[in-house]
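To whoever picks this up:

The nightly regression suite flagged Carboxypeptidase-like regulatory domain-containing protein as changed. Nothing in the input moved, so I suspect the structure step. Input below, exactly as stored in the fixture:
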Amino acid sequence: MTSLVRTFVAFSLLLVGWPLLTTAQTIYTISGRVTDAATGEGISFASIAVKGLTNGTTSDAEGRYKLQTKQLADSIQVLSLGYQTRSYRLISIASQTIDAQLVSSATKLQEVRVYAKGGDPAYRVIRETVRRRDQFNPAQLSAYQYDSYTKIEGYINNFGQKRKKNKKPGPISRLLGKLPAITDENGQPAVPVFISETFSNFFARTNPEKVKEKVLKSHVTGVGVSDGGLIAQLTGASFQQYNFYRNSLYVLRKDIPSPVGAQWETVYTYRLKDTVALNDGVCYEIEFTPKRVSDLAFTGTVWIDTLKRALVQIDARVDKRANINFVDELHIEQNWESISSGVRFPTQTQVTIDTEQPTPRAPGALIRFFATARNVIENDPKEVSFYDPSIELADDYKEADALFWKSVRPDSLSPNEWRAMRVVDSVRNVPFIKVAGELIKLGVLGYKPIDKLHIDLGPILYSYASNNVEGNRFRIGMRTNTGFSRKWLVSGYLAYGTLDQAFKYSANIEYIINRKPWTVFGVRRTYDLERVGVSSDNIGNNSLFAAYSRFGTIRRPYFQEENLVYFRREMGRGFTQTLAMRNRTFEPLFPFAFQPQANDHDQTVRDSYRVTELISETRFAPDEVILQNDNVRFSTGAVRKPIFTLRYTLGIRDVLGGDFTYHRLALTMKHSFRMGILGRTYYTIGAGIIPSTVPYPLLYTPLGNESSFYVGNAYNLMNYFEFVSDRWATAQFEHNFGGLLFNRLPLLRRLKWRELVTAKVLVGSVSSANLAMIPSTDAQGRTVEGFSSLTRTPYIEVGYGIDNIFKVLRVDAIHRLTYSDNLTRTGIPVTPFAIKVSGWLAF
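Regenerated output under the current build:
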């Protein structure tokens, strides 16, 4: 018993005394500065850690650091990328100063001076590098694949700095100053608002050129975002491809010429700085700068292997003098390594985007992208069908623990990165930030989620309209999300007009048969007010214009009841096939009539009809990237190859009440391409034919635009329903010079304006049989409104404009060159010249 009592008393004293012992424990402080041993300059981002412990910190922009720890070992370790790691002994005292000097791991060779005719020898090196680039470019492999790890961090910064004349920070800066934050490399507070990690397998092949990413695991934490599939796809390797062996890099929707691309001699100047030992080889260290500071081009350093003339490393920047919106500096660092075939491969890439402050007192933002490529396998192409879809999300992509992420990270996270991952959860749970995040989601997606019901309300854009037929139009819409079902998608809306006092509605049910390849089946029923010439078939995906078309005076309105059954499937190799059967009515609210065809038994003039249509649409987009947000998919567009769409419609008579047999065939091609320093060209061409006799609402009506806004897919000086054709060809052209001229004018350079030109041409005709279908009066004796058709003269409008005004506005001056006297034919005034505005956020 005595022994037991002694043990109990000792244990009790230990429990009582432990808090006192921990409270009295010494806090050791180690501080100093990390510098380059050769130059004496401070080294930023150096890592300082107590040997054998997890305690550590990083140096600031001047190389200074301060480390506090409760435990002390025999030494600290100091390491930084590009320098040899060093250890320094510690003394068991409360505070000590240790200044570390690091030696570069890229050992400089003996200086060699080259005297040669023809300028700096860097030009000979770059010229030979460009000549050999096909030998080392990974794009020339028949195929390659690798394991990809990407990490993206987003911070709000520049809100804690002192203002000029001791001005107080703005209200947003004061709010940010109260949020949890970390300390950035400049010693200033930075609020982490987004962090993601993604692990995937990336595949690519040539002939045909295809890419595919399998997103295996992803974790996303941020303000206004959820750990969903869309973000997982956007943060993977597909959008972090930077190949400097290409002629240009497509970054932030800009084409930036590569310093080792085909335009190297016309865009850049070069200087041979040194020769260094790097990655077990000797390299030329060459600086490059744009010939004109206003050009959208890189400034930086490239390291070229002296023997093979191949890329080893590159450090490239684009500063605020270039014409990129919201960006103060873009910085790309990339390491290239030789793989088994001798081809060079970018194994590590880091991209930093420092955004500019919109106003002097406003905060800024910092975004960092980090990507690695490991376990590269070359020349093992898969079947072409394997690469469709281009991005595939694993079913269990959210299921990964801390041990998994530790195993796939190329390096352990720094103390600041660990802290950022913890702090971002605290930031996004602040009430004000949560509200701001929801507003961001509502503005971007247009829907308001109702989590308990697993539905999204919207789109908000269509909630209200006002016109001469409906009066005030109110509409409420909804769609289900994956919480409701991953197979069934139910959507629809209900609308009501206060003037016509009529209800309109739509209901759509879609079933996802297969996600690979994407295969869906759907049915839809709609009853709503429409207008001739401004239907969903010719508006396309322009949701803003579709909403605007519900306002104002609606000419030639009609009610349409539509029943649609459709089947859509990805066929592989960029092909998507849609088959549909549609039955719809035409119930006009204006004087309309048509003369039945000669072979009809009933020759009574009629003012309404019903059609039954079989529709086949084949779409070919070989390099298009499709993203999926829950059960909804959308395209990010194509960069290099055109998109073709072939649509055939067959009208069937006497099936489900169909009144006509007719054919309609249309083909369109959409494409854009880079024209070097001259900018980028966008164009769309199309043609079609309706070799049948049908009422004019079933013919082709080009999309006009009577608004004050510029609409990309419309003829902007053509009125609604101004022309009708049954044979037509169109061409729409736009070239954006990207500030080529304005950047060279000192007074305009800071405005970052971008000049552009446009042209749109339409040719077409109408057969005499279709003209003959229009009687002079309808059954009530009212005069029937006809239509205008094109003659041998094409419709032409050309324009010129300025983009990027205040970074959001675009102004176009448009001239209508033909049919300026069309008032006498349509009764509607024609505008030969107009200035139209539009706006969107662009880089």
